[in-house]
């Protein structure tokens, strides 16, 4: 159904053009008219607004057909930028990775800070420095090993940020959208967005850090499964899990826990894919045999899911946060997906 007012119709048509330009990156005016179903005159009028907002740039085509060269509209990936902040486990402590992304996902700058004294005030000062160099930042996405509930960070491995209202603190300071996401949720989402395979069922990410309890993330139908209170994936709280304060974290003990969690998530989600993150296993092939063996033992009739052993936690983490940011900035385009 078409929007009811002229202004709504105009916004609808502009968003249609935005989506085409974002997908194509470069497109001529006739192609825009053809793909959008709008007249050349309407495209001309609407493109003036996108050009004045610097959302697109205009150049002349290098190809001439004998007459005037056609105008080419190019998506301006620097029009707005996304800042991501990852809290990472590094060498049995925490590190804080800042990345500035353009709208095509290119990382313009990246800076990692270490220290057990990092808190929201330190983070705010660091973000202020990025804004001086990159004033087009329009969204902040923070990944953390914890859960936000009712605006407060809960179940947090990093004590200096537990109990803080980070979202409201940074939104009040910078006046743009701030998104908080659990680290393993973001990692699973990042993998699902970058994978060449288009998964029709769930993707389950399982993360086993060296000296902290594991975490899980589930992506289903392009959405992170969070649950009512955001605690979906907090597998360290399963009744079958050990006392993590006395857990040995040896590889043998870790594999035993992993196999139990594989069985649990197979029972709950029957996923297309398990992505298991850990920096080191002594024998990757043997581990895959053990995982597949546990699934076959419990479900001998099923088609096995894809089992991926990944060391790309940081990469998928950063990309997952960026993907959540671009989704936020382009929410109006989703109506045309």
Automatic annotation (TrEMBL):
Transmembrane parts of this sequence: none
Q: Could you tell me which Pfam families the record lists for this protein?
A: ROK
Q: Which SUPFAM superfamilies match?
A: Actin-like ATPase domain, Winged helix' DNA-binding domain
Name the domain of life this protein comes from. Bacteria
Question: Among its keywords, does the record have Zinc?
Answer: no
Q: Which UniProt keywords apply?
A: Carbohydrate metabolism, Xylose metabolism
Q: Which InterPro entries match?
A: ATPase_NBD, ROK, WH-like_DNA-bd_sf, WH_DNA-bd_sf
Q: Which GO terms describe its biological process?
A: D-xylose metabolic process
Q: What does this protein do?
A: Transcriptional repressor of xylose-utilizing enzymes.
Give the protein family: Belongs to the ROK (NagC/XylR) family.
Name this polypeptide is given: ROK family protein
Species source reads Candidatus Enterococcus clewellii
